Amino acid sequence: MDLFAGKHLDVARHAASSLGSAASVLRFLMQPRDLAHPDACDFLAGNPQEMAMPEYIDALQRAVVPDSPSYYGYGPPWGPATTAVASALGERLGLELDPQDIVLTRGASSGLALLMHALIDPGDQVVMMSPPWFFYEAMVLAASAEPVRVPLSEADFSLDPDAVEQAITPRTRAVIVNTPHNPSGRIYPEDQLRNLALVLEKASARIGRRIYLLSDEAYARILFDGRQMITPGRFYGATFMLHSYSKTLLAPSQRAGYTAMPPSMPGREQLRFVLMAASLASGTVPDTVMQRAMPELEKLTIDIPAIERRRDRMVAEMRRMGYSLASPEAGFYLFPRTPISDATEFCDWLAERRIYTLPGEAFERPGHFRLSLTASDAMVERALPVLEEAIHTFSAARAT
Ligand SMILES: Cc1ncc(COP(=O)(O)O)c(C=O)c1O
C-alpha cells in the first residue's frame, strides 16, 4: 500500500516530502496486520498490552469532576501541577527548578513541536543524532528548517561531540539529543554530556548565536539496574528538557508531559513568555483533566522491575540462540543485530508468523531490528521459539 500515492492530490505529495524518512516508517507501521489475533505478538511500539494501572484510572476519574464553573475554562497552566512537576523533576535530575520554567505539554513530541515553533526560523539547521526517533526529521521539516544528521557510534551508540562540532554551521539553531536513547537503551554518561556542553558553548560563541539543546528525556523514568538518569541540562544552560507520561504510565494516547528549563537557561524570563505564546499558537497545552491529575501522576510509574525481568529473559535467551545484542540500560527496547543485512526481509519473515517487530531501516540502522519490552510475558514466550527458528533459518541460508 502506498499511503502517499495520490498523484492527483498535492497534499499527498506535500505530506510525503515533509515527513522525510518518517513516511517509510508510517508505511511499515500501517501495514494491515491482525494485532487482535490471539497469537499476535506485538513488539512494534511502546504500547500497552495489559489493562492500565488502576491508580492511574482513579487519578483521572477524580480529575474529571469539576470543582468550580471555570474548571473547564481557558486559563493559565494549573499552578499545583507546575509546582508538583518542578519539585519532583528537580529532585530526580538534581536541579533547582522554578515552577515558572515548566511548560505543560501533550507529551514529549508536543514539547518538540512547541520548541520548533518557538525557536526555529525557516532555513535554520537542526542537528540530530542518528539513529533518531522517527519523527524528529518531520518536525524539523515542518518548521521549514533543515535536519543535519550526526551518527552515533557504530559499536555502542555513544555520542560523538567532535562530530557534532563539525556539523555546526552559522545556520545551526538547535541540537536534539535523546537520553535514554531509543532504540539502543543507552543512558548517556556524564563525560559525553559534559563534552557536548563544551562543544555547544564554544560553537555558540564561534557562530555568534545561541545553540539550544533539546534533550528528549521521554524514557527518563524507565531505568534499569538502579541506574540514574543524567540530564545535559546540568552542564549546558541552554537546554530544554522534554518529558512525558506516555512511557512512565504506559498510556501514550492520553497525552501529557512537560518541558523544563534549568535555572541557568540564558534569557529564561523572556523565554517563559515566548514559550507560553508558542504553546497557545501550536496547540500543545494539555487538557484540564491531565493538568489536574498531574500532581498524582507524578507519583506513579508502571512496574519497571517487570520490564527489567522481561529484558533479562529475552536478552539471555536471544544471546543463547546466537543473536548479538546489548542489554539496554533503560527504555522499552531491545535492538539486536539481524542475521541478514536486510532487516526488512527478516522482520517480514517474523511478521508472517505473527511476530511483529520494526526493522533497523526505520531507525537509519539496517542490520538491526527493534523489539518492544512492553509485549506481554505470554507474547514473549510465544515469540522465543520463532526467534530461534528465524536465526537458524537465516544463518543456514547465508551459509549455503
Ligand atoms: C525518543 C522518543 N521521543 C519522543 C517520543 C514521543 O513521546 P510522547 O508520546 O511523549 O509524545 C517517543 C515515543 O515513542 C520516543 O521514543
Helix content: 40-55%
Ligands (ions, cofactors included): pyridoxal-5'-phosphate
Task: Write the CATH architecture name of the largest domain.
Answer: 3-Layer(aba) Sandwich
| Binned strand content | 5-15%
Named CATH topology of the largest domain: Aspartate Aminotransferase, domain 2
**Fourth CATH level, the homologous superfamily of the largest domain:** Type I PLP-dependent aspartate aminotransferase-like (Major domain)
- Structural class, from helix and strand content? alpha/beta
Lay out the secondary structure.
Elements: H1 10-19, H2 22-29, E1 41-42, H3 54-63, H4 79-93, E2 102-105, H5 108-119, E3 125-130, H6 136-142, E4 146-151, H7 161-167, E5 172-178, H8 190-207, E6 212-216, E7 239-244, H9 245-248, E8 257-260, H10 268-282, H11 288-297, H12 304-321, E9 333-334, H13 343-352, E10 355-356, E11 358-359, E12 369-372, H14 377-399
Parallel strand pairs: 1-10, 3-4, 3-5, 5-6, 6-7
Antiparallel strand pairs: 2-8, 7-8, 9-12, 11-12
Bound molecules: pyridoxal-5'-phosphate.
Summarize the entry for a quick read.
The protein is built from 14 helices and twelve strands. It has helices spanning 10-19, 22-29, 54-63, 79-93, 108-119, 136-142, 161-167, 190-207, 245-248, 268-282, 288-297, 304-321, 343-352, 377-399; strands spanning 41-42, 102-105, 125-130, 146-151, 172-178, 212-216, 239-244, 257-260, 333-334, 355-356, 358-359, 369-372. The relative contact order is 0.15.
